[in-house]
User: Which sequence fits this backbone?
């Protein structure tokens, strides 16, 4: 038996049916759990994959914004030279 780290419910997990890194769901609270240890089975809250994807999108937007800012700086320098 393993215990859900979120709600402390007992979860029956067969140690021969899971590997480290496998994910499962708590039948009591519905939390996504990850197997972090074997013999005895240890469970932890699984990282949200959706959040990771959102972070990647934010990073891409920042990089695009940085490129745009650099282009604006070049234009300002060019304008200064012309005056």
Assistant:
């Amino acid at each position: 038996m393993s215990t859900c780290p979120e709600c402390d419910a007992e979860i029956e997990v067969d140690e021969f049916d899971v590997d480290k890194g496998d994910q499962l769901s708590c039948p009591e609270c519905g939390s996504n759990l990850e197997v972090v240890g074997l013999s005895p089975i240890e469970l932890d809250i699984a990282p949200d994959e959706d959040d990771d994807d959102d972070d990647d999108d934010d990073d891409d937007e920042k990089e695009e914004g940085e490129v745009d800012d650099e282009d604006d700086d070049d234009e300002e320098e060019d304008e200064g030279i012309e005056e």
Q: What stands out?
A: Helices lie at 49-82. The mean pLDDT is 77.
